[in-house]
Structures are given as structure tokens and as C-alpha cells.
């Protein structure tokens, strides 16, 4: 269904702008791929990376406050072609100079710091090529997508990762209310537990996509990357990373959980208590940050991911798309939905719900499920219903093999 080189398309990175990783169109992007480095390579057997530096504290920091996202940077524009960002005399091109001035002013960064960083940025032809859309429409296939992520390599590596980091996962689950299985599954889908975190310089990737890759069909995309570049500059100024060297996916996502700069700034937490958030070399930070991101995007401790509901035949009218639930139980019931036999816990009925469609166009089939706020929290990580459901399916299989209660 998908060419392997495209496996970390725009899903995670767009979701990251609103959260870790979101953006994109308001409808369900079943064909979107994770914004990860993992998928750019064929999965290969190997060992899970060992536990990283830092001793996990007894308690985790409180969840960050819901962030105030700064307004978009209005300066700068995207023009096609492999041009650099500076003139022959070494000065920034006028539009990028204006961008630097606005970033400095709105983010309270010395202008010379922003200018020096942008002068080091280089156009990356590979980034532009990988971001280019397929020339022909790809037929969506839920079964094909699922098979790429709920598969033996990720399952084996996921079990090793869970066993190696049981204490940190248990501590995070208790502190933030997100099941360990979901955290493990997300990191597995994103980077196969750190095996493929990306080898593109994030500075070059964001500058290329922000200034040299216009998309007439989606002009907001270039704006997204310019805003992420401003976030990167702010992180660099605050000495939270070195923007001249940090590497990630071709879309600018970083570390084991593939956070975009804005998500690292607003949702990541210090899981190992060393005073530094390092999503590449601290497994504890990565684990805690995934959980924090989900909580700050609507995860409700104790709710299932999917409601135990039997939907009426052909419930297409109930599929509203988007990454936020907009229905309620009364509406679903009025349309003929019923509880599955034996259901006792109906707490989810007091929360917004959404019906999703998992289409398999080559086979001419479609599967419908009813998502709770916890399902839609995962779609803020990546807008694709395929992605969020694959995370759930991988989490369920890992739980089964670990002998733990599986998410429902």
C-alpha cells in the first residue's frame, strides 16, 4: 500500500504542532503515516536499546499546564526551488531576514542568535523529495497498514522494552493515568524503541519545508514548519538543545517518541529527574513525555479506548471525521446503537464519543468502531485513524503476551 520510504509522512509532525506531533485536514486521514524515522527503514531484528542514563525519581513532575501557543510567525514565505537562505555576501535573504526579526521580537530571543542559526541552515533536497506527495492516489487499506505495525519485530522489541523499563512504565502509569501498554506501543510504532530516530538535521529539514517547499493545496503546511522552526530557535536559545546539531526525521520530529520542537517545548517532561529533558538518550523522559502529551490532549484515566458498542448497519452518517469526538451516547442510541452483551462499566457514556471508519479499499470492506476521548487523544499524536487504531492493537497484543490486562 505504501512505499516504505514514505512511512513517516505528515501525521505525527502535524499533530505535534497542536500537540506532540498534529495538523492536517479536518477529516480522517486513514492513509497518513507516522511522523517517524522508524518507518523510513525496513524493520530489522535486533535488541532494544539498554536503559539510558538517569535514575528515575520516586515521583514524576506534575503535568505541565495547558500551554499558550504563540501566534504564527507572519513573516517569511515559501518559494519553490533548491535555493539557499543567504545571499552571496552571506546576509540572509530579505524574507528570511524579516522572519528572523519577527521570531526575535515575539519569542524574546536576541536577533543575532536567530540570524546566526538561520545562516547555518542548508536546503536539503532529500527532505523536499521525501515530502513530495505520491503522483498517484494510494488506495487506503486498514489491514495492510495494521500489518506494518502489529508485527513480530515490534512485538518482540516491545516486550523487551517493557521488561527493561517496567518500573518507569509502572511509575508513569500511576502518576499520569496512561496505561504502560499504550506508551510502549506508541514508541514502538514511532521508532521501534529508538532504533530509527532519524538522521536529518532538524534545522535543515524545517528551513527547507518552511521556506522552499510550498504546497498550493495546503498553504498552512509551510506556515506550520516556519512556526516549528521558531520553536527550535527558542529551544536553542534556552539551551534545551543544540539546534545546529540535533537530528530527527525528515519532517523535524525528534527522539524515541518523535516530538516536534513545539511539542518538546510544551508537553515533554523530565522523567528521570536530572533537570534536563532528553527525548533521545533518556528513556524515562520519553516514556513520561508520551504519557503527559496524551493526558494534555484529552486522555481520561480509566476509560476504554473503544466503547463496547454494537453500531447499526452502515453507520456512515455517524462518521464525522476530525480528531475530536463530537457525538454522545444518546445520539448513538437514537441511531440504533446498542451495548455489547455483558457490559457493566458504562462510565464512558458520560463522555463525548466518535464513530470511526477503517476502510480497506482493495478489499471493498470497512470496519466501524466507537472511539472514546482516549482514542481521540491518540489521534492528536497522529491524525490518522489507522495510526491510532494500530497503537491500540499493538498495545493489546503486548499486554496479552506480558500477561497484563489489555486495553479495551
How would you sum up this structure, described in words?
- The protein is mainly alpha-helical.
- The chain contains 15 helices and 6 strands.
- It has helices spanning 11-18, 94-107, 111-120, 125-131, 142-149, 152-164, 166-176, 180-191, 202-211, 220-237, 261-267, 283-296, 329-334, 373-381, 385-402; strands spanning 200-201, 247-248, 309-310, 338-339, 354-360, 365-371.
- The strands form 3 sheets. The chain has a two-stranded antiparallel sheet. It has a two-stranded antiparallel ribbon with strand order 3-4. A two-stranded antiparallel ribbon has the order 5-6.
- Strand 5 and strand 6 form a beta hairpin.
- The relative contact order is 0.19.
- Mean pLDDT is 87; it is low at 1-29 and 31-54.
SSE order and pairing:
Blueprint: H1 11-18, H2 94-107, H3 111-120, H4 125-131, H5 142-149, H6 152-164, H7 166-176, H8 180-191, E1 200-201, H9 202-211, H10 220-237, E2 247-248, H11 261-267, H12 283-296, E3 309-310, H13 329-334, E4 338-339, E5 354-360, E6 365-371, H14 373-381, H15 385-402
Antiparallel strand pairs: 1-2, 3-4, 5-6
Helix pairs in contact: 2-3, 5-15, 6-8, 6-15, 7-12, 8-12, 8-15, 9-10, 12-14, 14-15
